[in-house]
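Dear colleague,

Thank you for sharing your sequence with our group. We've completed the structure prediction you requested, and as agreed, I am returning the results in plain text so they can be pasted directly into your records. Please verify that the sequence below matches your submission; if there's any discrepancy, let me know and we will rerun it promptly.
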Amino acid sequence: MKFSELLSVLKPHKTVPVTPWRAEHRWQLSPTRVLILFFGLAIFGLGDSLLVQGNVGNAPWTVFSQGLTLKTGMSIGWATFVISVFVLLIWIPLNEKPGFGTLSNIVLIATFIEVGTHIFPKQNSTLSGVFFSLLGIAMVGLGSALYITCGLGPGPRDGAMTGIHYKTGIRVGRVRLGIEVLVLIIGWLMGGTVGIGTALFALLIGQSVAIFLGVVARLTHK
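Please find the predicted structure tokens below.
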């Protein structure tokens, strides 16, 4: 494959593409759609666990989960699950309604973060840690693209973001930034790992999701 062709394949997508497996409502289930959803969430969770095991800084929400782990003694998978359930409760005053994908998000991402932290070895060098972080960011991007295009409902954090946006009128980007900064600070104060990996995630995760949305769009278009 020529370099120009590779760049074309990896061109970021500006919107969420309409795929053959996209649902018309949040509880419209089919074997193919559910399989793609579960696969995407599993990849997402494993990608997040690579950031944890890279040991050079986690994504903001994982910093929060890790901090909770250090304070309570629960595993990082359980900490992620508890935080997700708590965030879902915030949906109630925001009048947001969960879908099958929302509930699957809570269970599967927490499960596969837990699985990944037992499968992948913890890294002790910056170089290998950065490699783990970059691979994890790519996997989170791929997993996000797959589960988002199923149309079965946003994850708890995304739903809270859009719900706060609709209630307050504050721009989505600013709401997301405010939430991410808040949980990052809380997690860091509780002992969560902040570092190069955190910065890489903040800088690259948006592009990673957009690139894989583009890949999905082009593959399904053909």
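Summary note from our side: The chain has a mean pLDDT of 92.

Kind regards,
the structure core
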